[in-house]
Structures are given as C-alpha cells and as structure tokens.
Amino acid sequence: LRAGLCWLRAGLCLLRAGLCWLRAGLCLLRAGLCWLRAGLCLLRAGLCWLRAGLCWLRAGLCWLRAGLGWLRAGLCLLRAGLGWLRAGLGWLRAGLGWLRAGLGCWLRAGLCLLRAGLGWLRAGL
User: Fold this and answer.
1) What sign results for the dihedral spanned by CA atoms 111, 112, 117, 123?
2) What 3-state class would DSSP assign to 114?
3) Please, what is the end-to-end C-alpha distance for the chain in angstroms?
4) DSSP of 33-88, one letter per residue?
5) CA dihedral angle for residue 48, residue 50, residue 52, residue 58, rounded to 10 degrees
6) What digits encode the pLDDT tens for the residues 1-43?
7) Which of 102, 124, 104 is nearest to 116 (CA)?
8) Rounded to an integer, what distance in angstroms lies between the CA atom of residue 29 and that of residue 98?
9) Which pTM was predicted?
C-alpha cells in the first residue's frame, strides 16, 4: 500500500511538474506573441515614417517645380523687358535720325533760301 501511495505521490508530482512546464510554455508563447505584436507595430511605424518621408519628398519636388516655374516666368519677363528696351532704343535712334535728317534738310533749305534771297538782293541793288 505504501509503495502504491508513493507511486501515486510521484505521479501527482510529475503531473504538477507537467502542468508547470505547460504554464511556462504558455507564458513563453504569450511573450512570443507580444514580441511579434511589437515587431509588427515597429514595422507599421517604419512604414508610416517612410510614407511621411515620401510625402515630404513629393512636397519638395512640387516646391522645386513651382520655383522653376517662377524662374521661367521671371526670365520671360526679363526677355520681354529687354525686347521692349531694344525696341525703345530703336525708336529713339530712328527719331534721332529723322530729327538729324529733318534739321539738316531744313537747315540746308534755309541756307539755300537765304543765299537765293541775298542773290536777289544783290541783283536788285
């Protein structure tokens, strides 16, 4: 009877030890799942940071495009201004040419008339 009780106690101890090992295994499984969740959260966070970085990159490219557009517009306005300046200088040259030619012609005509008048005056005297 004693031997049977000893074997029963030994069996119960082994059963308790098995349950302890089972609990420890379940705890390790829970810990593993927690680590897996943490890893997935870190992966999600990394993907969010990657998306944010791509958004910032896109925004930077948009600002760069806009800046280049403004630069092109400024260059076009500068070219137009230079064109207007050249045209203005051309009109000024043309005006000075006409003035020079006009004054020269009128001055020559006036001198011719003065000479003719003096010639008529001499002839009349």
Assistant:
1) positive
2) helix
3) 182
4) HHHHHHHHHHHHHHHHHHHHHHHHHHHHHHHHHHHHHHHHHHHHHHHHHHHHHHHH
5) -150
6) 788 899 999 999 999 999 999 999 999 999 999 999 999 999 9
7) 124
8) 102
9) 0.48
